[in-house]
Hints:
The protein is mainly α. Helix content is 56%, strand content 3%.
Amino acid sequence: MTASDPKADLLRYLQEARDALLWKLEGLSEYDVRRPLTPTGTNLLGLVKHTAGVELGYFGDTFGRPYFGENPPPWWYTQDAEPNADMWATPDESREDITGLYRRAWEHADGTIAALPLDAVGRVPWWPEERREATLHHLLVRVIADSSRHAGHADIVRELIDGSVGLTPDKGSMPPGDRAVWEAHHRRLEEAASQAGAAG
Length: 200
């Protein structure tokens, strides 16, 4: 077993979550990438928009490297932005605007990650004063966890839209089975849940 590079390992897992999130948008209509599919409004394009803001904040502002690309997105930098403004796309925000910002956020984050050692300390402006300091290592783990969580959300939302499942195009991560197999599996689980519910 060869020794691994901890920073490279962390970046690989972060990039896998990034790729999975964007892949979930492929082949869908503008309506489908935006439509809310949970009572709290979870939607695919909103998940991408949110994670772009997460990377801009934790790997930009926290380490004194604010993003200076185009005009800062108002939903991220404006104090009076409405709640959850980063979790959905307005009709004026195109898919290309949001996915493009996400890719630029990756580049900016990757620049910070490459430039600093894992023990570099940053200050998270939106955390309570007494615990604002955090290492790059800590924030990388935090952002990987957050991005992976949202990639999981996206996986479920995409399945609800058109039945598509899988981690990435080359990693299905699902046992083999056609529609009939999955329908039978679903019926079996429903029956088991009903039996347990009746017994309880």
